[in-house]
């Protein structure tokens, strides 16, 4: 009998201070990032720049956030899809989430904090902003690596200038007897990138190309960097968007946080990514209009909403 090896996600250490564009280390890391995003649609980034103390404080304030009354949490509403409070669904009983728009800015962090705690909560505000700023640095590094390795570094600055961030916080309560252990059903994010960070409780799983579910291991220095549908379309299907789910096995409350990136303008496949072997697969599209389309019955019926929306 052969021994079964558990599939693992690619792990890439992006902590080194000397990891700078143009260096050999940068080129090597960029190749690993490209391979991981093309094969898995994701990888585990080791990123020690987020100190243990900040990891602890972000999960402590996220716990306080979900302890607020439901009526308070429902005060967070937004015109933008994915930016409001979600929870109390009979079909997804364990799940709750809240989003902080523009969390890397003082205004964004303060604006959200004021809605949740009208008398203020500096600890929440500062932790959410510091955490988001560091994870945004990771996002920018990875995005730059991808643009470099695909030979489209000329487009990086304008891409980043129109990127906006959303910090989503998640709580999955323990299941009661006879209740489902599904925290979140299989899905692909509609983001450009999503960077997920878990508390110590397992749950996040990623589907490999051959259909196996691979568990993402929680650790204070681990960040799961995933490509969303917008990234896949921008890359003309070189990058896969990552299929993932949350399954609760430990019977403990689970918290996680994710920094989601969106483009506030039009995304289009760079001409460098099309040729005879790679004909253009997507028309230019407005990212936020795609998010709205994704909520329509037409999108719900579709196997691949981004292709239904702007596929050639
Ligand atoms: O809780 C997690 O780790 C995953 C959340 C997620 O996949 C999402 O909100 O899209
Ligand atoms: Fe997701």
Automatic annotation (TrEMBL):
Taxonomic source organism: Prunus dulcis
Residues covered by the Fe2OG dioxygenase domain: 162-264
Give GO MF terms, alphabetically. dioxygenase activity; metal ion binding
Q: Name one Pfam family in it.
A: DIOX_N
So what does this one do?
A: Probable 2-oxoglutarate-dependent dioxygenase that may be involved in glucosinolates biosynthesis. May play a role in the production of aliphatic glucosinolates.
What keywords would UniProt list here?
Dioxygenase, Iron, Metal-binding, Oxidoreductase
Family indicated by similarity? Belongs to the iron/ascorbate-dependent oxidoreductase family.
| UniProt lineage | Eukaryota, Viridiplantae, Streptophyta, Embryophyta, Tracheophyta
Q: Does the keyword Iron apply?
A: yes
InterPro entries per UniProt: DIOX_N, IPNS-like_FE2OG_OXY, IPNS-like_sf, Iron_ascorbate_oxido_reductase, Oxoglu/Fe-dep_dioxygenase_dom
**What protein name does the entry list?**
Fe2OG dioxygenase domain-containing protein
